[in-house]
């Protein structure tokens, strides 16, 4: 992966088939993997490393330990015994049966079968 600076915060990234234009000020990349609420793509990591910036400064705050602690800081109410639950009659009257058929007796396939256009 080759990174060519255009300005201090914009870059041209050559990555084989997937070349892209990266802008750190608007937090956008043409590969569309670097948006506001997502993790950093490889292009962004290369640009941040080139400039010597800190990686956590460009991640979404949702991936910080502060947000993780805040997500689990609320109260968790127990659901109680199953015979005390208030279930609507239309849901309680439905019977869920196991799927019809059996699994094949061989190991599941690990390799993907390519489609016609690949």
Automatic annotation (TrEMBL):
UniProt keywords, alphabetically: Metal-binding, Zinc, Zinc-finger
| Molecular function (Gene Ontology), one example | zinc ion binding
* Superkingdom of this protein's organism: Eukaryota
Domain SWIM-type residues, every copy:
9-52
Identify the Pfam families for this entry: SWIM
Give the protein's recorded name: SWIM-type domain-containing protein
Q: Which organism is it from?
A: Dipteronia dyeriana
